[in-house]
Write a structure and sequence with these properties.
By secondary structure, the protein is an alpha/beta fold. It is built from 16 helices and eleven strands. It has three domains: 89 residues, no CATH class; 165 residues, Rossmann fold (3-Layer(aba) Sandwich), CATH 3.40.50; 53 residues, Arc Repressor Mutant, subunit A (Orthogonal Bundle), CATH 1.10.10. Helices cover 45% and strands 14% of the residues. Helix 7 packs parallel to helix 8 and helix 10 crosses helix 11.
Length: 346
């Protein structure tokens, strides 16, 4: 897609379908089409005003960095079926990863140690199976998902709430560079140079849902962007999965509400993979040595289940460390969990 037209159309924030209709009429004729577009009779006064401040300087700077525009013909099937899909997207990195099976992992910025551990391990399992992990690039659950995918050299996409060149949050500049420099990409439905204003995050969440075959909610309060993403995915006919936690944890009340409303409860990433028709990767041998926390926990466990309170008492470790490490050990297949507690896998 011509990047100049993409910049102008996204800057105008046109209603669904209008942008593609204008593209079809004007054709791919660069600057000439851009001039015709700005004065097109079908544009409203507001749309013309938005387009009048279209920054071609921001676009040219982004293009020099390696940003490209992607048109409808290059969209994944999942995105093509989104009724609200934009006339184009801006992408920084390898867009081909969006054409692979995709699963979104979403959750709160104020994530617990447990939530981040689960996000990381689910992302690792998805990436090992060849699934692209999609999230929003935020701190907390999002960052853990991106890092988990990259830790096993997998593919991941960060969907941004501003221009693809306006990296937010700024503290994730290093993370974003790793994503676009590896097997993933940054994606935005907004014009280059667009600030990540608060109202744009809802659109970002909708794009996450549209790009994904399924959405996994790890840790989400009752009012959160993750819940909006899950609801939009459900409206689009996508599968929504929820990882549960302690019922007293307020950060999981939105998650648990989704389960009550019909979302599927999952406690292992293979359950998600099986549901979207992707074969889980074979078990990976444990090559790196265990940390001291894992060693202490395994030291107090046997093949007979032990409740968490006894693990805490016998190990002398903080609860947050124990809960996080138990999650990791279980997902790695080192231990098993039932109603009686945790035990070493026979």
């Amino acid at each position: 897609m011509n990047p100049i037209l993409c910049q102008a159309l996204l800057q105008a924030e046109l209603p669904t379908g209008k942008g593609r209709a204008l593209l079809k009429e004007l054709g791919p004729f660069g600057d000439l089409a851009f001039d015709r577009l700005r004065s097109h009779s079908s544009l409203s006064v507001t749309e013309k005003k938005r387009m009048s401040v279209c920054s071609l300087e921001s676009l040219q700077a982004a293009l020099r960095l390696g940003v490209v525009s992607v048109g409808f013909s290059e969209f994944s099937e999942s995105l093509k079926n989104w009724p609200e899909n934009p006339p184009g997207l801006f992408v920084w990195g390898d867009w081909k990863c969006a054409l692979e099976p995709t699963v979104a992992i979403v959750g709160t910025r104020g994530a617990s140690t447990y939530g981040k551990a689960v996000s990381t391990k689910f992302a690792e399992a998805f990436a090992r199976a060849g699934v692209t992990v999609i999230s929003g690039g935020a701190i907390g659950i999002d960052a853990a998902a991106h890092k988990g995918a990259m830790a096993v050299e997998g593919k991941t996409i960060a969907v941004l709430a501003g221009g693809v060149d306006r990296l937010y949050p700024a503290l994730h500049r290093g993370l974003f560079q790793q994503i676009r420099g590896g097997n993933g990409c940054l994606v935005s439905q907004f014009a280059c140079g667009t600030k990540p204003d608060a109202f744009r995050f809802l659109g970002r969440n909708h794009l996450i849902a549209a790009l994904s075959l399924a959405v996994v909610v790890i840790e989400a309060p009752e009012r959160s962007g993750a819940i909006h993403t899950a609801h939009r995915a459900n409206e689009l006919g996508k599968q929504v999965f929820v990882v549960p936690s302690n019922i007293e944890n307020l950060n999981f009340r939105g998650s648990h509400a989704l389960i009550r409303d019909g979302a599927a409860l999952v406690d292992h990433p293979d359950q998600v993979l099986n549901s979207i028709g992707v074969k889980p990767a074979l078990d990976i041998p444990f090559e790196k040595p265990m940390g001291s926390v894992a060693q202490k926990i395994l030291g107090v466990l046997s093949t007979s289940p032990l409740a968490v309170e006894f693990i805490l008492e016998r190990s002398g470790l903080p609860m947050s460390d124990v809960i996080s490490e138990l999650t990791i050990l279980e997902l790695e297949g080192r231990i098993i969990h039932d109603a009686g507690g945790y035990a070493v896998k026979p």
